């Protein structure tokens, strides 16, 4: 039988896990609002995340590489890529080193809109970390990374 202290700790763990999930949903809602403010209504928060990863990499990625970085299935990322391509946000091309692979890169339209995507990202970070010191952000980052490493299942 669990002690009162063990039950109290389990409750705190459950509350923290639920709160992380709630925070993620609220951040997505906030990103949707910021995308609309920046006139990027044809991009979902997840698609914007995929574009930001492509911008950060500064090199084309395969859907598999993008899926790995987003911690999503290749099928889901494939849907993002098709929608982004249809809207003119990305270009796809065969990988010259592997004819079976398709590389994805931001389009000229995406690069022209990059400052607006950056405004969305910075706007979210400003809201999420308002009032935090640099040290608190660093501590939170370490704690969140620890939780992530505990739950990630390598495939």
UniProtKB/TrEMBL annotation:
Domain HTH marR-type: 13-149
Keyword Transmembrane found: no
Keywords: DNA-binding, Transcription, Transcription regulation
Pfam family, one: MarR
InterPro entries, sorted: HTH_MarR-typ, WH-like_DNA-bd_sf, WH_DNA-bd_sf
Keyword Protein transport among record annotations: no
One of the record's GO molecular function terms: DNA binding
Matches recorded under SMART domains: HTH_MARR
Name of the protein in question: Transcriptional regulator, MarR family protein
Species the sequence originates in: Plesiocystis pacifica SIR-1
């Amino acid at each position: 039988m669990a002690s009162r202290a063990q039950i109290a700790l389990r409750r705190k763990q459950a509350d923290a896990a639920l709160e992380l999930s709630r925070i993620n949903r609220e951040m997505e809602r906030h990103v949707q609002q910021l995308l609309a403010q920046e006139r990027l209504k044809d991009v979902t928060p997840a698609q914007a995340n995929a574009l930001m990863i492509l911008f950060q990499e500064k090199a084309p990625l395969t859907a598999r590489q993008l899926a790995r970085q987003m911690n999503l299935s290749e099928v889901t990322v494939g849907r993002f890529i098709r929608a982004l391509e249809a809207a003119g946000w990305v270009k796809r091309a065969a990988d010259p080193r592997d004819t079976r692979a398709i590389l994805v890169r931001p389009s000229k339209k995406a690069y022209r809109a990059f400052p607006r995507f950056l405004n969305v990202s910075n706007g979210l970070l400003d809201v999420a970390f308002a009032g935090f010191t640099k040290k608190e952000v660093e501590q939170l980052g370490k704690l969140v990374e620890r939780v992530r490493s505990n739950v990630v299942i390598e495939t």
